[in-house]
Amino acid sequence: MERVFKNTIATVVVPIILFSITACAITGNDGIDNDGDTRRVGSVVWNNQVDIDINAVLVKQVATDNTRLVFVRKNDSDPEQTSANIAVNNRFQVSLHPGNYTVVNSCVGINQLSANATGFKNNNLLADKKIYELVGGQTYFFYIDMDETGKGTLEQITSDSALQLLANKRYQTHQISRVVPSCPAPIATSLPVVLPPVIQPQPPILAERVTIDLEVLFETDKAVVQPEYYIKIAELAEFMMQYPNTATTVEGHTDKRGSDTYNQALSQRRVDAVKEVLITRFGIAAERLKAVGYGESKPRASNDNAEGQRINRRVVAVVEERLTN
């Protein structure tokens, strides 16, 4: 009975060994030959790996509904049972040996990738999986490493790092890809797309004139707008953008110190400077702006004291709706 049982086990195990996907090196059996890169079982012969320049692979364009994954493993002396079972979306791809690389296409979007040692034989392709969001038409590179205990490492790397690792690496050929070969195509329609008519909104109308005190101060006898006052000018520019059919008169005023002629010229230079800031820094069209210097002719307060003089030194913007023809 015991002999019958052993014969039965032998009958079951031998075919499994012969057709094993990892093609482990076996010697001393008739009909099985592992010689260098060549593997043979009976009349079936294949190569374990071949020399394929990675650049010849990368030059091929990736379809927009596909993403290309390149897995590379450095040369090391880890035992054969630490060959890395690469899985994509819980589907076996290849048992990657040291010094080799492999390439597989997958669909765009979420992809689950994992690398586990062949020797573990736990059949859990999702163990230690990593999740990546991949874009169509792109190539992604992943570095694979296995330690002597069979612990796997899978890390995404840059193309520059990958190309250095891929130098002198060989393409792993003994693989049976179970990755889904085709991806859902975008839904096409032959019906014309009819867009609704574009209704241009009417710009708001400024019902009445608005006067804005810009609170821009100048150094003595100067007509240069300091950057700290840009915020008030920016508020005026924003208001004019909200009412695009408006025009603005920038008025400049001084106190009574100095001659009438001097004050009028100084106030004109200052409002011209404010107008220039509105045009060059805030994009207001020149035709929407007017600058008028009034000098000391329109005081708001008495010029007999410092406070009154401060109030009279002012820049005011008068905004109103433009007349339509």
Overview of the structural elements:
By secondary structure, the protein is of the alpha+beta class. It folds into 3 domains: about 1-45, no CATH class; about 50-170, Immunoglobulin-like (Sandwich); about 210-320, OmpA-like domain (60s Ribosomal Protein L30, Chain: A). The protein contains 6 helices and 17 strands. Strands 4-13-8-5-11-12 form a 6-stranded mixed sheet. Strands 7-6-9-10 form a 4-stranded antiparallel sheet, with no helix packed on it. A 4-stranded mixed sheet has the order 14-17-15-16. About 20% of the residues are buried. Residues about 1-30 have low confidence and may be disordered.
If you consult CATH, what is the topology of the largest domain?
Immunoglobulin-like
Question: If you average the pLDDT, what whole number results?
Answer: 79
Biggest beta sheet summary: 6 strands, mixed
Radius of gyration using CA atoms only: 40 Å
Strands, total number: 17
> Which percent range describes the beta-strand content?
25-35%
Straight-line N-to-C gap: 114 Å
Class by alpha and beta content: alpha+beta
Shape: elongated
| Helix coverage percent | 10-25%
Class of the largest domain in CATH? Answer: Mainly Beta
Question: How many H/I helical runs?
Answer: 6
